[in-house]
Amino acid sequence: MHFWLDQEFNIPSPWVKCHFVGGVITFEFDFMIRTSPGTNLLVRGAPNFFIDGAIPLEGVVETDWLNYSFTMNWRITSPNKVAVFKKGDPICFIQPIPHNYAESFDFDIDFLDNSPELSEKFHAYNKSRGEFMQRRNRGEEKNTWQKHYFNGKDVTSNTFIGEDRHSIKLNLTEPKKQNILADGENHKIDIINEKKQEIKSTITLIK
Questions:
Q1: Helices (H), the chain
Q2: Are residues 127 and 27 in the same domain?
Q3: pTM for this predicted structure
Q4: 14 lies in the same domain as 27
Q5: Which of these, 12, 77, 88, 162, has the minimum number of CB atoms within 10 Å of its CB?
Q6: What is the distance between the alpha carbons of residues 56 and 50, in angstroms, rounded to a whole number?
Q7: For residues 46 and 75, is the Cβ–Cβ distance under 8 A?
Q8: What is the pLDDT of residues 86-102, one digit of tens each?
Q9: The predicted structure's pLDDT at residue 52
Q10: Which of 117, 124, 63, 67 is nearest to 95 (CA)?
Q11: Domain that holds residue 95
Q12: Three-class DSSP category at 8
């Protein structure tokens, strides 16, 4: 695997490499993330963001005890194809999740008709959507979509679910304390090469 960098960034980088086999690009980070006990991080690619010729790999990192950083990895999808990562492209997305969250669930697989109330609501929605699409195809419907889910509205009762169960936007908090370098500061060649293994900052996520 070969890496080509723009002229202004055309220096040997210890943070981007082919660490694993199988056409995997590894991005190393010069920071640590520490989460509250029992909280891990789902590390993955940014939602709804794509790189032509590469796909992000994902995994759960136990950052409530990890004493070192982790990597973000992308796999090249086709041989002899150039995948372009532009300046400013998100290469990693982190999402806090409870430790062993998936393992905390039991589940059943059953026929829909064995749950009469759920079956009734499903068929009511299915009928509503079908009639809406027919009206739209005939030019009798000005709306492009019904927005039941977007608005958190139940089809059968025509009532809203409520803000405690439905949201369309995340209201994330800002850092309480932020000790970081200014943009471009401390990014000289000698600093990058001499401090290859140094962790420069720590991000703490408090539940």
A1: 116-137, 148-151, 189-194
A2: no
A3: 0.73
A4: yes
A5: 88
A6: 9
A7: no
A8: 888 999 999 999 999 98
A9: 93
A10: 63
A11: 7-104+177-205
A12: helix
